[in-house]
Amino acid sequence: MPYVNIKITKEGASADQKAELIAGVTDLLQRVLGKNPATTVVVIDEVETDNWGIGGEQVTIRRSRGQ
Amino acid sequence: MPYVNIKITKEGASADQKAELIAGVTDLLQRVLGKNPATTVVVIDEVETDNWGIGGEQVTIRRSRGQ
Amino acid sequence: MPYVNIKITKEGASADQKAELIAGVTDLLQRVLGKNPATTVVVIDEVETDNWGIGGEQVTIRRSRGQ
Amino acid sequence: MPYVNIKITKEGASADQKAELIAGVTDLLQRVLGKNPATTVVVIDEVETDNWGIGGEQVTIRRSRGQ
Amino acid sequence: MPYVNIKITKEGASADQKAELIAGVTDLLQRVLGKNPATTVVVIDEVETDNWGIGGEQVTIRRSRGQ
Amino acid sequence: MPYVNIKITKEGASADQKAELIAGVTDLLQRVLGKNPATTVVVIDEVETDNWGIGGEQVTIRRSRGQ
């Protein structure tokens, strides 16, 4: 019954990588807490780099400096 | 003053259906808890089926099996 | 499969009222979008009035003025 | 280490305005609570006006009336 | 830089189990997407069973039936 | 009409500091985007240090090392 929300910057994660995240986190919750995978929900949000800030600045700016 | 966030898979909900969700949930909060509709906020997120997992797999995969 | 998060101020909603919100929003999603109630998840967050702001001030302050 | 999520309607906020929101909120958390800007994360969600409700109706409808 | 929010019902997860969830999901994001663990943020919300609904009813009710 | 959610670790923020965050972020949205303060909602979540992870470990652990 857990609900997991993963937010990452939109920088080309493939469908297969997203499938791997969903399977991995569902498995983790079963192993650690015995949660039923059948009702574990995982939602991935991919956020534009202009809309994600860290250290007070946009990821877009950081990427342009090679960070 | 309540804030409601509804997350659904992006599978063709129409503008009218979304209007109905907004009106319905605002009305529900007024009926059950006496909340003022004027300041009730509802945000609907439509999520790609590749980004939504249940039972450890993507909705895209489930849909391809007719689930 | 929808996920709904309802945030309200912590001002004494009863267990029965919360049950009514859960039943009501699950029913709404079935009626409007045909969503399966069995996998509809609803999470209610009750937030201290010191931690909720509207109009630039805390709900605690507004309540002290009778708003 | 704070995490801030800002949700606004998608109505043309520029990259510069979003940069200003990110810098402003990061600075605010440093001034008020002494939080380290280096690990302050800000995520901005821009939501279609059909998907945002207030007062029981979509922002799209309100905008069409000049509100 | 990812942000992960895990919501579970408040039913006695220990500090060690929560540590394991945090380590596990941070590791998963590094393995699958190459995300830097140093800036991966994980927030766990533990929700009262009265405030969590699935299948249109509270988890409290389901637990009382042994589900 | 914006909605802002601020998550911080629960480490003694006072009511006055929370009031300052609410006023500050509401003002920021008015200055940068012209958003109406009357309908700007701010919700602050204070999260136990056991439930907040960064760098793959709990804040509780980091604090015990003086970080």
Automatic annotation (TrEMBL), chains A, B, C, D, E, F:
Query: Which residues participate directly in catalysis?
Result: P2 (proton acceptor)
Q: Which UniProt keywords apply?
A: Isomerase
Documented EC number(s)? 5.3.2.-
What EC class is this?
A: isomerase
GO molecular function per UniProt: isomerase activity
Kindly give the Pfam families that the UniProt entry links to this protein. Tautomerase
Question: Which InterPro entries did the record assign?
Answer: 4-OT, 4-OT-like_dom, Tautomerase/MIF_sf
Asked if the record carries the keyword Isomerase, the reply is yes
Domain 4-oxalocrotonate tautomerase-like stretches: 2-60
Q: Which family does it belong to?
A: Belongs to the 4-oxalocrotonate tautomerase family.
Q: What is this protein called?
A: Tautomerase
Give the source species: Methylomicrobium album BG8
Organism lineage reads as: Bacteria, Pseudomonadati, Pseudomonadota, Gammaproteobacteria, Methylococcales
